Hints:
A: alpha+beta; elongated; B: 24% helix; disordered C terminus
Amino acid sequence: MAVTSRIGEWSLLRQFTGRDRLGRGEAAQSEQSRTLEPRTVQADRVVESICPYCAVGCGQKIFVKDEKVTQIEGNPASPISRGRLCPKGSASKQLVTSPTRVTKVRYRRPHSTEWEDLDRDTAMDMIADRVIKTRKEFWEWESDGKRTRRTLGIASLGGATLDNEENYLMKKLYTAMGAIQIENQARI
Amino acid sequence: MPGLGTSFGRGGATTNLMDLQNSDCILIQGSNMAEAHPVGFQWVVEAKRRGATVIHVDPRFTRTSALADLHVPIRAGSDIAFLGALINHVLSNDLYFREYVVAYTNAAALVEEDFRDTEDLGGVFSGYDPEKGSYEPSSWQYAGATEAAAAGQRDPGQSGTPDSAGRHRSARSETSGSGGPAVEAKPERDETLQHPRCVFQVLKRHYARYTPEMVQEVCGISPEQFRKVADALTSNSGPERSSAICYAVGWTHHSVGVQKIRAAAILQGLLGNIGRPGGGIMALRGHASIQGSTDIPTLFNILPGYIPMPHAHEHESLDDFVAEDAGKTGYWGNMRAYAVSLLKSWFGDAATEENDYCFDYLPRLTGNHGTYETVKAQLEGGCKGYFVVGENPAVGSANGKMQRLALANLDWLVVRDMQMIETATFWKDGPEIETGELVTEEIGTEIFFLPAAAHTEKAGSFTQTQRMLQWRDKAVRPPGDSMSELDFYYELGERLRAKLAGSTDEMDRPLLDLTWEYEKDDDGDVDGESVLREINGTGPDGAALSSYTELKDDGSTACGCWIYCGVYADEVNQARRRKPHWEQDQVAAEWGWVWPANRRILYNRASAAPDGTPWSERKKYVWWDADEGTWTGLDVPDFIPDRPPDYVPDEDAQGPDAIGGKDPFIMQTDGKAWLYVPVGLADGPMPTHYEPPESPVPNPLYPDQQRNPALEGIETPTNPMNPSFSDVFPYVFTSYRLTEHHTAGGMSRTLPYLTELQPEPFCEVSPTLAQERGLEHLGWATIVTSRSAIEARVIVTDRIRSLRLGDRRVEQVGLPYHWGRNGIIPGDSPNDLVGAALDPNVHIQDKVGTCDIRPGRRPRGRALTAYVEDYRRRAGIGAESEKEEG
Amino acid sequence: MGRLSGRLDDVTGDAGYGSSGEHPPRMGFFTDTSVCIGCKACEVACKEWNSVPDDGYLLTGMSYDNTQSLGASTWRHVAFVEKPTSTSVDLGMPGNGPPSQGQDQEAESGDDSIRWLMSSDVCKHCTHAACLDVCPTGSLFRTEFGTVVVQADICNGCGYCVPACPYGVIDLREDDGRAFKCTLCYDRLKEDQTPACAMACPTESIQFGELSELRQRADNRLAELHEKGVDAARLYGRDPEDGVGGDGAFFLLLDEPEVYGLPPDPVVTTRDIGSIWKHVGAAAAAVAGLGVAAFVGRRR
């Protein structure tokens, strides 16, 4: 950065001409300070949400600019949280914009030592094939002479961090599949 | 949450966080609320400002203790001895709220003559089968009720009753999530509470030896401290005052977890604190939608709305299935309507009266299929495909090694997360790769890592800790390949159905007949609201229903989760209501939506006296308006709106008609809060102190019964248990959360702003333990159990106490459990130390165990397994497991 | 006008924003440590809003305090003090290290024998701010809200402000070279928004508002605590007659300031150079020269 551009902000002139003779206040205000505004004001939209961490269910406001989350803060309207957030809730923006977030499908072949790339469509198709195969392989119509109509070959873990609608589709699909070992953090 | 479910009728917090501000005394036990629920804790601070007494009973002095008026250190795992002594204190000093207890609890009910207490049988209740390690609970019944059961209408047993194959029918306890367990008949009553077999007297005898002296012996709490707590609670209960109890996983994560909550329920019942403002039991849950994921369960043993999953041996037809509950008194009597509506919602037109509404499509249970049993099945090769979504069992579940060895034995694994978590990378850099127990090239597991959408990238609802559904709008689209679970499972279903289309195999019918059409949003993603509308349910005209009372058993209504019926009333997403609190009263009924029926304090009919008038002006909440002929007040009355207080049902009334005007617990078949649970639990009708599965001390209350007799073990070589009172494992460890991190860490130790606040794993020890073992502050320590050994930095602090129990001293090691091998600062996972020994009702493990601790870092590589093996050998743990792991 | 020490009721007017009524009221923080739960939401909320980088990953062993102190990359800092209550001899030292080993606790079993004090520290936004007084570039200035702010577009990293601060708040960020500290969310204040830390604080330990009103609130809270028998409660930085003319961000403490790592009697370090500053022109010109020299030296 050029030294001169900073010197250009020099406020001596204003200091000698204004009310702030010591140049410690109004006269010292830089251009940036004068035109400063919070980025919440610049947001294209503000979306109301709920914190994803614990079960208190604090209200959040998500500020979006150019399709990017620019700020997440408490929603004062919530009767539960009254706008407040804990350190985790306060770190929500870092959570959703984290540079270490993995956003590409990763695939590990059996016995392989490395991850590979895989396009999502192929991955979804492969997973569906695996479900069909394992389901059939472990299909059980009866156990001890009683009808069970199930597969013990497929299990699932997770749900307490997910939406009700997601848990609903999971339970619905797994049950129709005949899978029963469906569990979540409530047990852990 | 069967602890609350069996006691009051619904498995959810009886109150809400905001109402804590109305409490006169708050007992926080089994919870570190200020650290784990900081924003919820504002209401405790508010109560304190208004003069409430705040008490924290906890093994450690935490950030909650720092704000409490009184901190009482307790030995981890000894809560029932403490709560039992409070119950005894209340009973023997006549400090209970008599009018409430007589009218609203089952204190007056008479118990079966055959019932024998732990006092009579050396620490077990009648019906115990030592061979099977489980109970046959018919002798626990109300007098008069067993006759009907014996006549063969149904098996009165709930969970824990061994079926013909000798397995636990352990799935049943959680069905009391909404609707208590069914009893056959209303019991005989003695409202003088004098009959020797009435619940009141049974309780009195059961807890007679739970004295302050015993508390000192078992818990390490002095009689003076005990007295302070007892006085605070009893002086702040009654018509004019109310006290609340808050708990979290400090109670649930134990082999007697359900019974700890039951003990609190008994205490609150006796003090008359349920259903009243400032009272209640606040269950503090740890994940954004953990309540939601039990209401609409991703759990093996229940269907949406706590309808049980059918069992192979009992439920051949829909009629058999509902026979257990149909015709019962209370709202659970309508189960057929709830079940038929669920089947209609899933299988649509394919579900007809002729085919039993596709009831046969539901897969059947034959025992415990919980997560630890599943891991065991994976180890044994009986389960080959695994979806892990938003969870990290390699770090977050008990016995991490057992988890990872199971992962290595799969055919395929799908992990869906936002960060590269340990469950997805165990094959590359897990602890067993280091020790040579696993070799990457030999692991045949095929792994798909699919990036997940964040909460900002999808619309949907969470159900938080007070049963409230709150809707999130979508802010941005998920980046790259990321997608929500909603889209993932929808698409998986689409693909499965396409690939199986045209199949004539009967096993594929349920998938092909599944209703699977949902609207899409502008981005082409599944519209969560259309799923919520299906959950809410629709009537014959296709319009959204507004209440579960509208559900029919004739196939004319469809409803995905009956307890959520009303969340889409009037075709409006009620969970998305956001009227600011400053435009509402304190109850804030127009923010979000609460099940059931938007009631904020459950059982609130109990906030009025039996005659329908408020107990006091100060604690006025819901009351009977005789002029209007209706219940009214600040909340939605949790009662039949026009049923007068003096209503007495006919002897043969069924379903909701059988609820009397003085029966506030409308989901219970007898309308009462259960101080004594005659049916519904696997390990006894009353909470009893047993030592944790691993304990350094004998059980002083029942010398012949050290552990929960119905304890459920996971018997597999990688899950050995430490012998109790072993010199090899002389200390107690307890694991816990820190404010700065979240559970298994995937959402926190990947973030710089949280990692810098608590950067690396540590253990907390008292100065005396540090001296005893030569541990240095900030130095390294190795902590070892028979499962594994980990290392952590040492924090020596006065916040961890040495506890004196009789003539012995017990040292405790504190272990925050958030870390793993990935993330910004890698470290060992404390859950690798924890053994899986489970509560028989809910199959949850005990977070307390015994260990050794030594200065210095742990051995590396193969030396680590040898080190742990040596401990096992010295502790006398079976040679078999050593061979298996060597 | 232009006082550098002593009582000053309109610090904003003194900085050239006109008489009271012409400028917004002086805004500040009242941090009531008696309800602080040490959650550190303030630290994170501050960083998220102000894009402050992380400050390194170090387990310090100072109780639960791993960010150690205020600095260029920590603008809110929560101090944790573990303190035995039974000790009759109070050495007045911060008890945040390890306790002395081997003391027999058994006798204390079951007693409330420890206190855990937590306090969220922040820039005090002094009435007489030495950092501002010594800043040669005019980067540090007094805003229309009476707060003290570093202007990143002017700061040249000379570092004069660092030793000037009687509280050790302001510091240079190593990889950047410039000075940083709490701005009391200057940008948010311009839109009448609450600063990020105060907004997040779960228990209202951090309260934001007009300083005059906060002082009233603090006095009431202090009286309330004294009534409850909490005799050790005291206000810190509340007194407009103190060495810095009172703080814009002041505290209610439950022990001696030293226990929290705060100076007991801070004095504006420029108190005695007021006379020099009377010769404004010469001084400013001289300092400007120094400032440029320092800037060039550092940023080359």
